[in-house]
Amino acid sequence: MTYRNPPTTPRKSATFDDYTLSEIRRAAATGIYDIRGAGAKRKLPHFDDLLFLGASISRYPLEGYRERCDTSVVLGSRHAKKPIELKIPITIAGMSFGSLSGPAKEALGRGATLSGTSTTTGDGGMTEEERGHSKQLVYQYLPSRYGMNLRDLRRADAIEVVVGQGAKPGGGGMLLGQKISDRVAEMRTLPKGIDQRSASRHPDWTGPDDLEIKILELREITDWEKPIYVKVGGARPYYDTALAVKAGADVVVVDGMQGGTAATQEVFIENVGQPTLACIRPAVQALQDLGMHRKVQLIISGGIRNGADVAKALALGVDAVSIGTAALVALGDNDPRWEAEYNELGTTAGAYDDWHEGRDPAGITTQDPDLMKRVDPVAAGRRLANYLKVMTLEAQTIARACGKNSLHNLEPEDLVALTIEAAAMAGVPLAGTNWIPGKNGF
Amino acid sequence: MTATSKATLDQAHARVFDLDVMSLRELNQALHSLAPGSNETAWEVLNPKGNHSVAVGVDQPVSIDVRGSVGYYCGGMNSGGAITVHGSAGPGVGENMMSGSITVKGDASQYAGATGKGGLLIIEGNASSRCGISMKGIDIVVHGNIGHMSAFMAQSGNLVVLGDAGDALGDSIYEARLFVRGKVDSLGADCIAKEMRPEHLELLQGLLDRAGVTGVKPSEFKRYGSARTLYNFNIDNADAY
Question: What is the pTM of this model?
Fold first, then answer.
């Protein structure tokens, strides 16, 4: 028997991992950067890294099924004659018709309305489906101004001036030709089938002083009735929040890097912007420094998945959260029932993110008439409403355990962090210690 | 004429808003409160003094004479009004106009007619940079010159310039038509000079007529529009961006 030297186990590089290698090969073969939907997929400090303390001797809990725990929130009371009153502090984020199918937009409206919350248009104008089925509809005012018109502005319930979004702070939109159907092309005043590039900057204002004048114009056009939100990506949350307040916003929306997009470069999604968790305390601090906390409402979005995430965000000082990706999953996005078709597209349920290609087996991120029939707006709306209800009940369960009769009474003192990073970002102590990194000189 | 009879005459002919006495809010609210078919079709705004958002969101076919210069966004989102600024206009005059007309007797600042969907914007003086940016169906006629980056990402509609155009005209343009009588400092990405065919001469004559331009022939203009090479992404065009 001949002696063989013991072999080493084949070792792959942590730096050049399988995904990295595949991306190098793909780039070399195609000469085009990778474009995809959704938000950052990398592992980030997140709400999972926080825990609630619950009640103990010093704090007593509320009875789970008997004592009331308020979930309502009013948005836009600073200047608007008609603020938005929501039953739950979870709203539906802006997602465009064009990126999403008409039935999917209708389902979002139905689900939100059943739940007493608002939904939001997107970079493609307002459709009858969503206006008709959304009791409270926020109309986005975007750099592209696709479909922007006076009638829709006046029949909106609130206006959201979009400066940026978490997936791509500083980036414009992109809708590839295969999704520019006749209807989408008409709403956007563009030729059918072209790759449509949305601007990254507003065409008629730059900087905070202009924004103040722009907001004044929107208020004058709508007779000071409607709340005006300003949405920013998670870039400089302290200064962006402060400047939005200075410009006259009623509501500030801060979208962290886990917040989804219809289509953007992978390199942009994964490398620009800050995690949602890192954005909250600076934004809240800006409001507190200006004496505007709870007067100008703060909405946070990007990676909100369950009632615990909602409760943690509220405990850190936000007034409401917004969901996009999770809402699409509730409608049926990435459902394993379509696994065979995901496989044909070279992916698997749970990983499908080529939303820009318009071939979504679940019928949500498509303009294909046959695929979009797979979304039953009534049933999908019901699922979204169920999901929102569960999230709300989960958040209430935690709040009652912390002795709070309103979700908005949750506070940072109810939280600890599992990691030093999360402790520093959230400004709460590392579990088992009284150490908040960055506070008191440490 | 006595003071009383002068006031009676004004009421009969025009509803006068003096912004030295009344607020901008009162002016815009009064315009928005007009019922369809109202016979208050003539309005006059005195002492605008650079106010922003003068006569925004008008949605009735009324005429509004603004006696002086205005700040940002005069006539923003105008839908059917015929607004005349007897002075100069700040940034974004007629932004996102839906229909109707706006005439600026003096000069206009940046972004005149930005994202306009329809109607006619006439600048009798010069317009600054980014005139007609992202225009979506509006017609714009500028008697003088326009600044740089005008008609950036212009999607639809017509921009007519009797004078010269600055750098990067029509950068990333879609299907808007640009007609310039004078020189163009430079064209932006994917914008090229195009043949002036009979239908374009006819279209241009119509625009000049609507804008009250006389003594100028369509044949004196050059037409510019999209080369359409950037309509679908191609890596070999990356240097153009």
Answer: 0.95
